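Postdoc handover notes: sequence design on the structure in folder B. Input tokens:
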């Protein structure tokens, strides 16, 4: 089954079930949000999120608010080259925007949630923002997903403890972790401190069990590395990178 949706490229990976806050100020993405606001409230306001391949984004960006004196490239595919599909990873995630709030200056505050994995088949840059033809991907459980999820949760708790210790901070254990294998696999993938290519590999795993097996190896390796470090930079475990759209 294929769908056509607005496309929002990011320098990070979105997983099903994870919350995505966005500060939208580029005109191409503002146009996207204006279009999504035309969707009746009782219907989902969906767009697709794909991670940008390393080295492919050439549009200028910097921390903080955009420089009003800068003259960046214009158009929906600005910064992504003549064939934008080559700039993006092939598997992304559909986002359902629960909140789209327009500010007085025309920028938007958006809160969305990842829902379904999709494979990118083509990108259209003919309109005011990118759109894409997408193939929805089913989540297959794979073999022994339940047992693997239990092992991953145990390893993840050890990872959290080591991470908190290396940061010389206390670990809050009040939150209950899920037990559904696919949910466990996505939560752990999003929460671990991994680079974008590794997170992308986890997103496009062929099934839940394969993702969990990969995560178990990563958790053991990362926990071992953290054990030998005196400290780590301060950042919240489950906080994703800020989107500079």
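Designed sequence:
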């Amino acid at each position: 089954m294929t769908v056509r949706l607005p496309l929002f490229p990011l320098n990070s990976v979105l997983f099903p079930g994870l919350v995505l806050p966005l500060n939208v100020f580029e005109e191409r993405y503002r146009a996207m949000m204006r279009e999504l606001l035309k969707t009746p409230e009782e219907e989902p306001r969906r767009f697709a999120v794909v991670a940008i391949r390393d080295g492919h984004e050439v549009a200028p960006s910097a921390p903080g608010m955009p420089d009003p004196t800068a003259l960046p490239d214009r158009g929906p595919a600005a910064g992504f080259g003549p064939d934008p599909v080559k700039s993006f990873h092939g598997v992304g995630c559909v986002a359902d925007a629960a909140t789209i709030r327009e500010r007085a200056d025309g920028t938007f505050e958006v809160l969305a949630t990842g829902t379904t994995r999709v494979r990118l088949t083509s990108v259209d840059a003919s309109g005011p923002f990118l759109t894409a033809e997408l193939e929805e991907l089913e989540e297959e459980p794979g073999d022994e997903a339940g047992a693997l999820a239990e092992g991953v949760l145990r390893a993840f708790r050890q990872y959290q403890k080591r991470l908190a210790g290396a940061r010389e901070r206390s670990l809050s254990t009040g939150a209950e972790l899920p037990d559904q294998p696919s949910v466990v696999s996505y939560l752990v993938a999003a929460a671990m401190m991994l680079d974008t290519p590794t997170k992308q590999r986890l997103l496009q795993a062929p099934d839940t069990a394969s993702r969990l097996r990969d995560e178990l190896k990563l958790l053991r390796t990362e926990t071992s590395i953290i054990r030998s470090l005196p400290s780590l930079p301060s950042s919240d475990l489950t906080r994703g990178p800020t989107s500079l759209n």
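Context for whoever picks this up: Confidence is low (pLDDT under 50) at residues 56-65, 168-174, 232-245. Don't rerun without checking with the PI first.
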